[in-house]
Amino acid sequence: MAANKKTKLLAKQLFKLSLINGQVSAGQVEGVLGYLEKTQPHHLLALLKLYHRAIATELARSHAVVEHAGPLGEATLKLIERTMTQRYQRSVTASAKANPKLLAGLRVRVGSDVYESTVAGQLASLSSAV
Amino acid sequence: MLHAAGLFPVMLPLLLATVDATPAAASGPLEGLKQTFEHFGVEPKLIFFQLVSFLILFAVLYRFGIKPTISTMEARNKKIESGLKNAEETQLRLAAAAQESAQLIKTAQLEAQKVVNEARKIAKDFADKQQGEANIRAADILAKAQQAIELEHKKMLDQARGEIARLVVKTTEQVLARKLSDADRAGYNEAATKELTAL
User: Fold this and answer.
1) A105–B192: do the CB atoms touch at under 8 Å?
2) What is the pTM of this model?
3) Among A15, A54, B50, B194, which lies 20 to 30 A Cα-Cα from B171?
4) In terms of domains, do A77 and A56 share one?
5) In Å, how far is A83's CA from the nearest CA of chain B?
6) Predicted ipTM?
7) Are A97 and A64 in contact (CB under 8 A)?
């Protein structure tokens, strides 16, 4: 069932309740879910989907996925973590993910932001330019 | 009646000429004339009554015969004259009509010739115009076809270029995937990290 204006507003309010110091708190999320289970408001499914999307987006903004081809040292990962935390002014954790298709270089994704310096990306740019 | 009266003096000399010349007495010409008449059995008393009856007969004949005949003849002559006159007038009118008709025909022929010439001119102009338009359309079609061919050529070249680039990139990817060592990759990762932190 499509979400109406009230459902969207409620989802937004619940999301705000799930944050502590601008970060998603697991305890708060548990509390919100318990409340929803207890009260069973109207359009529960649509409300849960909206809430889930908001939480996932917020979590993605606080997490950097570092795709790499070849070896990646722990120090490099930490450096990237610090850089992203400084840039976004909030705590960002980084995790490494091997992707041989990149050939060489790194691709860092934080939420909807992507930073790329890979051989595959440069070849793709060259291909589209030609 | 005038004719009858006129004949008698003419006949008289003839009558006298037929009479033998007799020795006339010394009584004179009158006596001689009287004897002539007696010789032919002509008596004056009878001549008068003959003359009267002749005149009566003449009058009757004139009244009931000659005059109507003359009238009829005159009427016929008049009719003939009028007929001839009508015929002449008709002939004149016919001649005038023929002349007028010839003139009309001539005028009509001139008009027709003018119309034909005009129609020819219009047809020629129309044909020339159509020819010109057809030439323009043909040139336009030719130009458009030329443009389409050039576009198609360009599109084909672009496609070929794209395909070649894709193949080159694919080949490069495959070669690099095989040829790049871990050390090369690590070096590239370091460079990428420096680039990221420098942003």
Assistant:
1) yes
2) 0.47
3) B194
4) no
5) 6
6) 0.70
7) no
Count of structural domains, chain B:
1
- CA torsion angle A66 A67 A72 A76 (round to 10): -20
Domain span at residue B62 reads 2-84
Q: Distance between CA atoms of A76 and A89, rounded to whole angstroms?
A: 20
Question: Quick one: three-class SS letters along A22-36?
Answer: CEECHHHHHHHHHHH
End-to-end CA gap in chain B: 168
How many domains does one find in chain A?
2
Tens digit of pLDDT for each residue in A39-93?
888 888 999 999 999 999 888 888 899 999 888 888 889 999 999 888 888 888 8
Distance CA B42, CA A67 (A): 189
Residues 6 or more apart whose Cβ sits within 8 Å of residue B37: B43, B44
Radius of gyration of chain B (CA): 70
User: Using CA atoms, how far apart are residues B15 and A128, in angstroms rounded to an integer?
Assistant: 164
Residues A68 and A55 in one domain: no
The minimal CB distance from B173 to the residues A87, A115, A123 is found for A123
Residues B9, B11, B17: CA angle, nearest 5 degrees = 115
**Statement to judge: residues A45 and A86 lie in one domain:** no
Cβ within 8 Å, pair B189-A80: no
Which residues of A make CB contacts under 8 Å with B?
68-72, 76, 79-80, 83, 87, 100, 103-106, 108, 115, 117-120, 123-124, 126-127, 130
Residues B94, B99: Cα–Cα separation, whole Å: 8
Strand-strand pairing, A93-98 and A63-69: parallel
